[in-house]
Amino acid sequence: MVPATVASALAEVGRRMDSRGWVPGSSGNLSAKLDDNQLAITRSGVHKGRLVAETDIIAVDYEGKALMSDQKPSAETLLHCQLYRLFPAIGAVLHGHSVAATILSLSGPIVFSNYELLKAFGFTTHELDITLPVYENDQDIGRLASVIEPNLQNEPPIGYVIAGHGVYAWGTNVEHAYWRLEALEFLLACELERRQMK
Length: 198
What we know:
There is one protein chain. The protein has a single domain, classed as L-fuculose-1-phosphate Aldolase (3-Layer(aba) Sandwich), CATH 3.40.225. Helix content is 37%, strand content 20%. The chain is built from 6 helices and 9 strands, in the order H-E-E-H-E-H-E-H-E-E-E-H-E-E-H. It has helices at residues 4-19, 53-56, 77-86, 99-104, 141-154, 174-197, and strands at residues 29-33, 38-42, 57-61, 92-96, 110-113, 129-132, 134-135, 160-162, 166-171. It has a 7-stranded mixed β-sheet with strand order 3-2-1-4-9-8-7, with helices on both faces. A two-stranded antiparallel sheet has the order 5-6. Helix 3 packs parallel to helix 5 (141-154).
C-alpha cells in the first residue's frame, strides 16, 4: 500500500507537469521510493494531469512487479527501478514527453553550454559543456535498461532522454525531482530555440 502523502505528492506533481504540457495523453510516468525494496509509481494508461491518488499510484518491487496482482504498473517501471537500485540517494523519478525533449533527442547528443541554470544540478559555475545522454528508443524496456546502465554507473548524468520519446529526471524527493525536471526542461527549451535561430 502506498502512503497517502506519497500518492498525493505524485498526483500533485502530475498536475503540474500536465499544466506545462510535459505529459500529453497518458504519456509519462512518476515514481517515489518507499524503501529499499519498494517504490510507488503511476499505473499504466492513466492521464498524469488527472491522477487519483488512491487508485492511480501503486506499489511495485525493485523488479517492477506490482505488489497487488490486479494492478498494472507503467510500461517503463524498470527504468525507475534501475535508478533507485544504482543510486540509493534518489527519492523520486519523473519522466515526461515535452516538445523540446522529443525534438532535440532526434538530432543526436544534446549539449548545454554556458547556461547559468546548470547550477541547479550542483555545478559551481556556468562555464561548462554538459552532455545530456540520448538513448535510442526500444519497446523492450529490459533491453533498453541494459543499454543505459553502464553509462549510469560511469558517471550519473543530470538526466537522460530516450530518442523521440522523452526525458528522465530525478531528485532526493518528489519536489526536488520536479525542480530538477523544471530546470532541465528550461535548458531543453532554450537549446531548441537556440538551434532554430541558426
